[in-house]
Design a protein that fits this description.
Blueprint: H1 2-24, H2 37-47, E1 55-56, H3 60-63, E2 72-73, H4 91-94, E3 105-109, H5 123-131, E4 135-139, E5 149-153, H6 158-174, E6 177-184, H7 187-199, H8 202-208, H9 210-240, E7 248-254, H10 257-268, E8 272-276, H11 290-298, E9 302-306, H12 331-337, H13 342-359, H14 369-379, H15 382-387, H16 393-407, E10 411-412, E11 425-429, E12 436-440, E13 448-449, H17 451-457, H18 465-478, E14 483-484, H19 486-491, H20 493-498, H21 501-535, H22 542-552, H23 562-572
Parallel strand pairs: 1-2, 3-4, 5-6, 5-8, 6-7, 8-9, 10-13, 13-14
Antiparallel strand pairs: 4-9, 11-12
Helix pairs in contact: 2-5, 7-9, 9-13, 10-11, 13-14, 16-21
Length: 574
């Protein structure tokens, strides 16, 4: 009884649709599907594989308008055992197969009977949208497409340009105009930088100088994204040449794509938004892109989601820029550019090539280390140049001098083995009389380092030492500790190495690269010295003499301070 009742209700719904189709002169084939609604709809639309139930007690003439209507089950009746005959039928007997039909488009309402005031999208349509591979029209209002405005979004992907072609065909068919946009988000980088600046360690904020990082994104990444959007729209204009009767307006939108597209839609009031199911950043296994999902949920007009069937990379329109080959790169420069994160590598590479072409007045040239160094110096903040090994020995020396100045304020006093004082006091000196007195310690007073802990800190490379010190002191203050011992440093090991691993690694890269640069510079000076010696007739390399004397030196350099080692060398080599 329930099964027949549901069929009758569905038939009544289709009666209403049938009247509209008759009025519009559209042929209607009725269909019922057996199973979970969204699952059967997706199976039917994708492959014509929805399960068709046998119609119960339908008049043959009426059943003829249904898929599978040639197999009508007998009406509900009671058998000899007092049970409904339909209840004793096996599952296979209730089904009549599938339509096997190939569909081009699914039209579905944005909401169903269970719509609530705060609903953005019906539960069934949300699930169907994820499962269907064909084009899906999500209907929200009855505004006609004829002479209307259509809005389409392109992001440079083959998915986006299929949506563009669909939009052009619809605009031509309905005599409408087409608005094309391409969006990129510049705010995200700045939001991330601001957030990181608030939550990362003190030393990280000093190393990365977020204001300069923002400048880096403005100079390279943001401008690169702008050029990509310009190219996206240029390709759209090339495609639109096939549809000369369609008025076209293009617009670059800056911001989170779905957000700025929604804002533009509020301004132009389109009757239809056309968008791709996926974008350029699609990964395997995803059913619907995040920007597409947001737009389908939030749009107040009808939305057409272009499917993934028949997508081909070669359908992306060709523009002149595609025929311009990049400059050749020397192997050593190629290795260095690969340090750039993958997501920004193409933009960074193009920025360097543009710099080279600018310097050579458009003449092709190979990108060598020299060109790369010059481009980076122009385009990157100073600290990023140091990290990439562009800095000179002089810059390393300046960094070490700066580090020494920062370390001078550190208070070193006592030993690890000293007993903990009964009261926490500090010694203060009157700036006028010079009188010395003691007062209770406050949170603003400097952290005290023991001799042993300070000696251990000395193992950190000099230019990274202030950052390591600040990490330990911040850890100590957060735990109410005013005296840093080696035990405190051990307790802080995770904070110093694990939690701040990125900072330490960055500083070590900076130190290693700059030291290598310094050594290379010293090597050049040494080579010049040897060449000069040869010119003066000196046939034996003086370095060998030094090595021989060093082998006879009784001093153990590993156990000496730098000052003692220097004195020993001066004595050995008068």
């Amino acid at each position: 009884m329930i099964e027949k009742g549901l069929q009758l209700i569905a038939d009544s719904f289709l009666d209403q649709l049938g009247k509209r189709c008759d009025a519009a002169g559209v042929r209607l084939t009725r269909q019922l599907l057996e199973g979970i609604n969204y699952e059967e709809i997706a199976n039917e639309v994708n492959r014509g594989a929805g399960r068709l139930p046998g119609l119960i007690g339908f008049d043959p003439n009426r059943a003829a308008g249904y898929d599978g209507g040639d197999k009508v089950r007998s009406d509900v009746r009671v058998g000899e055992n007092g049970r409904l005959v339909a209840e004793d039928e096996d599952r296979a007997a209730r089904l009549v197969g599938s339509s096997g039909r190939a569909y081009d488009l699914l039209a579905i309402g944005a909401h169903g009977l269970g719509r609530q005031p705060y609903s953005q999208l019906g539960g069934v349509v949300a699930r169907v949208l994820r499962g269907v591979e064909k084009d899906v029209l999500v209907v929200r209002d009855d505004r006609p497409f004829a002479a209307g405005r259509l809005l389409v979004c392109v992001d440079g992907s083959s998915y986006g340009y299929r949506a563009m072609r669909v939009a052009l065909e619809l605009a031509q068919a309905f005599g409408g105009s087409l608005y094309v946009c391409s969006a990129f988000d510049v705010e995200y980088h700045h939001v991330v930088f601001h957030n990181i600046k608030d939550v990362l360690s003190y030393q990280a904020s000093k190393v990365f100088k977020f204001e300069e990082q923002e400048e880096l994104h403005n100079n390279i990444i943001d401008k690169g994204l702008l050029k990509l959007c310009q190219a996206n729209l240029k390709r759209a204009e090339v495609m639109a040449r096939e549809f000369p009767a369609v008025p076209l307006k293009t617009q670059i939108l800056i911001g989170k794509p779905f957000q700025v597209i929604m804002q533009w839609a509020e301004e132009i009031k389109p009757s239809l938004v056309v968008l791709a199911r996926h974008g350029a950043h699609r990964i395997e296994g995803t059913q619907l892109g995040s920007q597409a999902e947001n737009l389908v949920r939030l749009a107040t007009c009808n939305v057409l989601v272009a499917g993934t069937v028949g997508i081909r990379p070669e359908d992306i329109p060709w523009i002149e820029e595609d025929g311009v080959a990049g400059l050749p790169w020397a192997p050593e420069a190629e290795v260095r550019i690969l340090r750039v994160p993958p997501f920004a590598q193409g933009i960074a590479r193009r920025a360097v090539e543009e710099y080279v072409l600018e310097q050579t007045h458009g003449e092709p040239a190979t990108v060598t280390n020299r060109w790369l160094d010059e481009a980076i110096k122009k385009l990157l903040p100073t600290h990023m140049q140091l990290i990439m090994g562009i800095g000179t020995a002089e810059e390393l020396a300046l960094a070490e001098v700066k580090a020494q100045e920062q370390l001078k304020a550190t208070k070193v006093q006592g030993h690890d083995a000293d007993p903990e004082p009964a009261t926490m006091e500090v010694e203060v000196k009157c700036p006028v009389t010079g009188a010395v007195s003691r007062r209770a310690r406050t949170a603003a007073d400097a952290i005290v380092w023991t001799e042993e802990s300070w000696q251990r800190l000395g193992l950190v490379p000099l230019i990274a030492r202030p950052l390591a010190r600040n990490t330990v002191e911040r850890f100590s203050r957060s735990h109410g500790i005013w005296r840093v011992t080696t035990r405190v440093m051990d307790d802080n090991k995770q904070a110093m190495i694990a939690a701040d691993e990125f900072d330490v690694d960055t500083m070590m890269v900076m130190f290693t690269e700059l030291r290598a640069k310094q050594i290379r510079g010293e090597g050049n000076s040494l080579q010049a010295f040897i060449e000069e010696a040869k010119a003066q007739g000196i046939t034996r390399c003086p370095i060998r003499d030094i090595e021989e004397k060093m082998g006879k030196c009784p001093v153990d350099f590993k156990g000496l301070t730098p000052e003692e080692a220097k004195a020993a060398v001066e004595k050995l080599l008068p």
